[in-house]
Amino acid sequence: MDRLARFLFLGILAIVAVAQSEPRPNPSQIDRAHTAWIADVLNATQTVKAGMTRADLMKVFTTEGGLSTTSRRTYVYRECPYVKVDVRFAVSGRDKELPADEIIEISRPYLAWSVWD
Fold it and tell me: Which residues, in sequence order, are CB contacts of 96 under 8 Å at separation 6+?
């Protein structure tokens, strides 16, 4: 039993040592304006949800170049083209993207370089 207790104690001690060794940002190094802007971006992007329409999505995002279909497309945040979401729709028509098309699925926002075509 003593051996087990020592093993557990050493394991906990190792976990604490590793956790404390990870670098933490110095509060003076955090750019509060950038941090606030990112929080605003995340809040804005999370206002669009499945069940809403393409018209609702277009208030926050705009289309990006590259390959797409009427049922799948990548959209970029209106204020920064590097913030993106991938969206799937239940389309009303095959040939045309319609404002009333319903969002079936929207990805989490992610960062990526712009696509131009």
Answer: 70
User: Distance (Å, rounded) from C-alpha 108 to C-alpha 85?
Assistant: 6
**Which of 56, 95, 104, 64 shows the shortest CA–CA distance to 80?**
64
Q: How far is CA 42 from the centre of its chain?
A: 7
Range of the domain at 77: 48-117
The answer to the question of residue 19 being in a domain is no
Question: CA 10, 16, 19, 20 torsion: positive or negative?
Answer: negative
Flag whether pLDDT at 56 surpasses 70: yes
Residue 105 belongs to a domain: yes
**Percentage of residues in the chain having pLDDT higher than 70:** 80
